[in-house]
Write a structure and sequence with these properties.
Layout (H helix, E strand, L loop, with lengths): L7 H6 L14 H5 L1 H18 L11 H9 L11 E2 L2 H8 L5 E5 L6 E3 L3 E7 L10 E6 L3 H9 L5 E2 H8 L5 H14 L3 E5 L1 H6 L5 E3 L14 H7 E8 L7 E8 L1 H7 L3 E3 L1 H12 L3 H11 L9 H20 L23 E4 L14 H15 L21 H5 L1 E5 L4 E5 L14 H14 L7 E4 L2
Parallel strand pairs: 4-7, 14-15
Antiparallel strand pairs: 1-4, 2-3, 2-12, 5-10, 6-9, 8-11, 9-10, 13-14
Length: 460
């Protein structure tokens, strides 16, 4: 039998807390703090994306550069997937490759291959059965928000009425953006589904390929076909700190979501083994420790509220623990839809597996660690204030620069992109150019590992 959750870290971090270990995720008490519960759900998505070792998520410090690549094809910042990963490392864990998406760069005829990524959605604890894919929001204090308001008559729309409005001429720019965002975000999707564990106490990791293979290529052009597979809502989102917004949201219908779950691959053991190897503990304990270390949300005010928040954290972790492998029933749904190349000049490409093992390559996270370690040996150490200690190499004072450096290799293209905190880009024109330092360090590290040349470029 697997060991029970260790709550010692929580008790040490919050010594005065009173934790209810029987707090129910779906209880009335949990419903009463739905906003806080939703915040935790978002943090669980972050943990799955960044800590599960499914292809190794890109460190947050490096995401700015990857985001620029997505934004260069017109994708909204909020529509970029949670986990930007090493495609080869993912294949080594899952046994197959993620969909590799290319799209046309805005204002040109240049096709750009986007970084490998997958979106994570938590499903089964409150909310609708089908998770939302993405949304487009516009403030009513801006002209675009007022344009949406005029197009919908100042109302909130749902169902067929919302679809008809979205397909109107007035909302064409927002429709095009929403569909582009959805296609990018829906390329690879990981669904954390808690429903099965509640009913069956059985953890499941399932990857589903080509979930949209049975859908007509005209799905985003024909209202009737679209309405069969997607739902639209156009709502006003109120805020106490800013102007209200119109939010246009897209999500799959029950029929589409059910279709996505056909032809699954059960990778439960592979994924759990990868997490255990990377973190040394079960997912339930890792999640608990991660959530404890996160900042308490602003909405949680007062001793009683903090106790409920901590009890809710334990309830989530115990949900995974009940499943044995991890607390949540995790159903991983990796989607690689077939989209026509004509729509938004974008296509999903699946590369055939090669006989060569991907295990000879190291992941982006591992390569980043090696580069950071080498930088630590190269950069002179100095006090927080004072003159530079080298005429051509950055002086390490707090470790901020070195810890922000991340490396993302694309072995098939022989390209290695590096990223670092954009604040240091102001030094590019100086003698202590961080681009030169990182480029030379990456080259030094990879030359000692691979008998091949790489094009090393800054990604942000």
């Amino acid at each position: 039998m697997a060991p029970k959750l260790d709550l010692n870290r929580m008790k040490v971090t919050f010594p005065d807390s009173k934790i209810d270990e029987n707090f129910g995720l779906r209880s009335k008490r949990a419903q009463a703090i739905k906003g806080v519960r939703n915040t935790l759900i978002g943090r669980i998505s972050d943990y799955v994306s960044e800590q599960m070792n499914i292809g190794l998520g890109m460190p947050k410090s490096a995401k700015a550069g990857a985001r620029k690549i997505f934004e260069s094809v017109g994708v909204s910042g909020g529509a970029i997937a949670d986990a930007i990963v090493d495609a080869d490392a993912f294949e080594g864990t899952a046994g197959f490759r993620l969909s590799e998406i290319s799209a046309m760069k805005t204002g040109s005829n240049q096709q750009i291959q986007l970084p490998s990524a997958y979106e994570t959605k938590v499903k089964g604890v409150g909310g609708a059965a089908e998770p939302a894919i993405t949304a487009v929001s516009r403030s009513l204090s801006k002209p675009e928000g007022q344009l949406i308001k005029a197009a919908v008559g100042g109302k909130q729309l749902f169902g067929q009425e919302a679809i008809s409005a979205l397909f109107s001429k007035e909302l064409t720019p927002f429709r095009n953006l929403l569909f582009l965002n959805a296609r990018i975000k829906f390329a690879n999707l990981l669904v954390v589904d808690t429903a099965d564990i509640e009913h069956q106490s059985k953890p499941i990791f399932k990857f589903i390929t080509n979930p949209l293979q049975n859908i007509s290529s005209n799905v985003f052009k024909d209202q009737k076909i679209f309405a069969r597979y997607f739902q639209i809502s156009i709502k006003i989102k109120s805020s106490s700190s800013a102007a209200d917004k119109y939010r246009i949201e897209i999500k799959p219908t029950a029929e589409l979501f059910a279709d996505m779950e056909k032809g699954v691959r059960d990778l439960t053991k592979r994924v759990n083994d990868a997490h255990l190897k990377a973190n040394g503990i079960k997912f339930s304990q890792g999640l608990l420790n991660y959530l404890i270390n996160q900042e308490i949300p602003q909405a949680v005010s007062g001793k009683d509220a903090v106790n409920e928040y901590l009890s809710l954290i334990v309830a989530f972790a115990k949900e995974f623990e009940r499943g044995g492998l991890t607390p949540f029933t995790i159903r991983s749904v990796i989607e690689s839809p077939r989209f026509s190349k004509q729509s938004f000049n974008m296509t999903a490409v699946r590369k055939a597996n090669k006989k060569d093992s991907v295990q000879k390559f190291i992941s982006g996270a591992q390569l980043s660690a090696l580069v950071q370690k080498r930088l630590g040996a190269i950069m002179p150490k100095g006090p927080r204030r004072g003159p530079p200690l080298s005429p051509n190499i950055l002086t390490e004072r707090t470790g901020r620069f070195r810890s922000s450096v991340a490396v993302l290799p694309n072995y098939r293209a022989n390209v290695i992109r590096f990223f670092y905190d954009p604040i240091y880009k102001s030094l590019i024109q100086s003698q202590r150019n961080p681009d030169i330092l990182v480029t030379n360090t990456v080259r030094e590290v990879v030359q000692g590992m691979f008998a091949r040349k790489f094009n090393i470029v800054r990604g942000n």
